[in-house]
Amino acid sequence: MTLPDSTVRAVDFVWDQAMREARDAIAGEPLLGGLIHSCILHHGSLEQALAYRFAQKLASSEMSAQLLREVSDTAYLDDPELGQAARADVVAVYERDPACHRFLQPLLFFKGFQAIQAYRVGNWLWRQGRVDLAYFVQMRVSEVFGVDIHPNARVGRGIMIDHAHSIVIGETAVVGDNVSMLHSVTLGGTGKEDDDRHPKISDGVLIGAGAKVLGNISIGHCSRIAAGSVVLEAVPPMKTVAGVPAKIVGEAGCAQPSIMMDQLIGIRTPDA
């Protein structure tokens, strides 16, 4: 199955820019020509490229790339939101990660971006009632990328996961739009309860490296969670929390913490 070139083709700044960058990259490093052609230039749309990348990265002796490509092609064709969310994710990584200088980088090299796109296909499978195949995708994403997102979790668009190692997002977790998180973040439960047991992260939240947010608690929009914090209670909007257990230590410091990516907590010094 192939996806039509007309998918979001009227105006597609993200894909057009990635294609230009791909051609420039080959000119600068011909040894990557095969990779870039097969992953980018060979395809007529971002959806086709993402479906190919999904299949190639997650294929194993247990499931061939051909079968996974058929699954991912069907997912992108059935649900246009997958491609739109991916475009928002590309822009989010480009705007927020100082190590990202081209749209091409997340598509080829950044496991946080690729893990999120693979999760989106797994979530589509879950919503189709294909639960066991969704679990297979979750397993392979964890094995390949070191990112474990339950396929029933709900994740918005414009997501940036920097470095992405050891990310865990539980079954009933909700992550809003324009959220940024760093490596080793856990959105987990607090025990063996079998109901709605995971955090609800609102839009625009910044979660620092190693932070653990546990239980069915809400994290208000545009708040900041400092690195290494353990959050066990709800956080109001536009606040900064830090510590073990985390406490409110001040305001968020800006209107859009997840975009500004400012992780420093101001320390007030006593007057001399």
Automatic annotation (TrEMBL):
<keyword id="KW-0808">Transferase</keyword>
<dbReference type="InterPro" id="IPR001451">
    <property type="entry name" value="Hexapep"/>
</dbReference>
<comment type="pathway">
    <text>Amino-acid biosynthesis; L-cysteine biosynthesis; L-cysteine from L-serine: step 1/2.</text>
</comment>
<dbReference type="InterPro" id="IPR010493">
    <property type="entry name" value="Ser_AcTrfase_N"/>
</dbReference>
<dbReference type="InterPro" id="IPR042122">
    <property type="entry name" value="Ser_AcTrfase_N_sf"/>
</dbReference>
<dbReference type="InterPro" id="IPR011004">
    <property type="entry name" value="Trimer_LpxA-like_sf"/>
</dbReference>
<dbReference type="InterPro" id="IPR018357">
    <property type="entry name" value="Hexapep_transf_CS"/>
</dbReference>
<protein>
    <recommendedName>
        <fullName>Serine acetyltransferase</fullName>
        <ecNumber>2.3.1.30</ecNumber>
    </recommendedName>
</protein>
<dbReference type="InterPro" id="IPR053376">
    <property type="entry name" value="Serine_acetyltransferase"/>
</dbReference>
<comment type="similarity">
    <text>Belongs to the transferase hexapeptide repeat family.</text>
</comment>
<dbReference type="Pfam" id="PF06426">
    <property type="entry name" value="SATase_N"/>
</dbReference>
<keyword id="KW-0677">Repeat</keyword>
<feature type="domain" description="Serine acetyltransferase N-terminal">
    <location>
        <begin position="14"/>
        <end position="118"/>
    </location>
</feature>
<keyword id="KW-0012">Acyltransferase</keyword>
<keyword id="KW-0028">Amino-acid biosynthesis</keyword>
<dbReference type="Pfam" id="PF00132">
    <property type="entry name" value="Hexapep"/>
</dbReference>
<dbReference type="InterPro" id="IPR045304">
    <property type="entry name" value="LbH_SAT"/>
</dbReference>
<dbReference type="InterPro" id="IPR005881">
    <property type="entry name" value="Ser_O-AcTrfase"/>
</dbReference>
